[in-house]
Amino acid sequence: MKIIKTTANSPKRRKTYKIASDTDYNAVMSEIDKLMAKGSKNVSKKELAEIRSLALKAQAYEQRKYVIEPPTTFAGIIEMKMYDLQLKQTQLAKKLHVSDTKLSLIMSGKQKPDVSFLKVVHKELQIDANILLEAV
Fold first, then answer.
1. DSSP-derived 3-state class of residue 88
2. Range of 26's domain?
């Protein structure tokens, strides 16, 4: 792990972590765990700031390392939106003004979505129409 220190003339000498590998990431997570093990009542403001800083660096590393590709299938796009909106399939059917059966058939790939259905999906779920058309 690379530890970068501020210059000696700097009034505050504070170590900062640069996460470039899984080893660095594990060391940062270990440092976070060590600080958090003190308990919320025993952590100073400086330590809280350090936890936050380390957590943000760890989060940035995770986002660089673990890239989730967006779905490309019609059902995958709809399922992702259902997850985002925290909707169940029956709730989504009501929102789209279709029967549970029709939505189920479309989601399972047994029925192709018609133009009116695509329009409603675009309008109600605010999904780019081009993405929907490419997925069908």
1. coil
2. 2-65
| Per-residue model confidence as pLDDT tens digits over 22-33 | 999 999 999 999
Cβ–Cβ < 8 Å for 81, 125:
yes
Residues 90 and 114 in one domain: yes
Supply the pTM of this predicted model: 0.56
- CATH code at 121? 1.10.260.40
Number of domains observed in the structure of the chain: 2
In Å, how far from its chain's centre is CA 134?
24
H or E segment at 59?
Answer: helix 45-65
Cβ-count burial 34-70 (b if 16+ within 10 Å, e if not):
ebeeeeeeebeeeeeebbeebeebbeebeeeeeeeee
8-state DSSP, 114:
P
